[in-house]
Design brief:
mainly alpha; single chain; 3-stranded parallel beta sheet; 619 residues; 3 strands
Amino acid sequence: MVLLGALVAAWAVPALTHLVGVDWLLIPVYLAAVVGLQRGLTTLLDRLVVAIVQSFGALVVAGLFFSYVGKLHPVVLAGSAFTLLVAAATRRDWRAPRLYRPADLAVVAGTVGVAVLTVVPFALRDLGGRIGIVAGGEDIARHMTLFEQIGRFGGFAFLHPPGDATLLPAAETEGIRAYPQGIYYTYAVVDRFLRSSDTSSTDPFTAVDTMLWLYVVTFVVLALVVLWSAARIAGPGARPLAVTAALAVVAAGVFFGEPVAVFVRGYPNELAGLVVAAALTALVVRPLTSRIDQIVTVALLVIALSFTYHLFLPFAGLLVLGWVARYRVWRSWQAVVIGVLAVPIVAITPIGLLHATTTQLLTSAGTALPSDKPAALLLVLLAAAGLVAAGGLRSPARRMAAFALLAAVSLQVVMGAWQLLTIGRTHYYFDKLLHVLVIVMLVLMGSLARLATTNGRRPLAVTAVVVLAVAGFFVVAGGRNHAVVPSYGVRLATGIDRGSPGGGRDAVFIASRFPEAENTVDVDLMGDPYRNFFGTLYGSVLQRNYRYGHDWYNFLNPTRGPRTLADLERQVSVSPVRVRIHVSDPRARFLTGPDAPTNVDAATLVAQRYPDRVQVVTH
């Protein structure tokens, strides 16, 4: 009777919350249930962090089914999840965790600090200003569109024919449709629960704002997982004060180092991949005591990484191979079965993108900020020092951590060598791979706690000095080989770098005035070149017209060289839809040449030449 009652409640409770419009309550209820069913973990924080990353991987797997059945309906998703938890509860009791250990307080404090520094700049701005913070990376416009496309499909976009992806540009439909979609599918699921809705949002402003806030949450979760992972690497024997000192460096590295540079450029998928890589590193170095939980968790993390940022899969593969060899995992029949089931799922994204993947892609350019290579080198040296100090390599966990360090560094060297041999310099994907190296080193920074855990006070004093020096280094330095001072984190927190709020607000303004594109593309020529570029790009996203705005934002891209009036006329002539040009500042000019007209004059001239194709709107 108890089992029957639990199964009824598994569906009745979600039906009730959906009826009264509070489906968001099911998220903490679900996490609480998973926390109680965890094994091999002691404290509430341990279980919560692992529950979050496990659930991410599980949701990706479930999405392959629910993209066809039930779609994104909160009752279907929650009812199915709770049914599985009830089934799991027949094999193990729900047990309350120990509340905390001293190191957990340092993890929470560091996470709260990063959260405040991240949330405040977004909270103080309107939607246009929030778009402006992450507009510079440009890619997030496609991510927003993919998030909404998944919401419309009710599942993964790559499971639908290219012709059905009406929000995506025809020229890029196939590539974007097959792009790793784990984090966007997760955002779409959470969005449905937050709105207690079984349909996608009809309001594009709400949809974009929701995704931006979920993106902020993703960065905060990254901070939480990295700090927790570093504390786990420190081990149960480390002094709380020593762990706190090490985590101070880690927190500084997250917000004032490389991760925040990823954040301000608008890469949700990469941030999610870094979350998974951090958790996987910690759990391979110090596995869960429950063997079956460890095997399932590792499988879910590798699947999650494949569906978020498969550039990091080689690192995950090396880690898993090292773990399998170290613990002879192949001897477990459960591991063999789970591996056989997981490998085809892991392969879905890489195989799906084979048509768009070449060796030349690894040398292509992108919009990521150049990495701070001296800072990354310093992190490698500090992590290595922590691992070998005080006989650290005598510990099996430390040897596994050293293997993780070697794996990350080796892959970086291979990528660098390939790019140097092919194009003579390191470029975009070298910097991208360096991001996972930095995250792994921040996780392994927990080993620094050993320096202050040995007998005597001198190691503690030395550690304190090192911590302060490194934290100060991250705060002051940063960016492209320290050329950007202060760091990107300081610039974000203090408002020194506001991104492109003008372009973001233009986008909101245009989409508010003309919410329906109606076979028309809106072009922003109201201000300076970058404002026009971002206003056109994000305006098309808010109008759900990126399909046609894509070509125009490429045309307006200031990095693509000078444009003449003839180029503008040519762009108008090949447009598949009508062009609505917005002008305002009579002095603004994006065209070049000795007799180049202002934006107002240029818009007037092309309207006169193409009266049936061009409309000029003056603000």
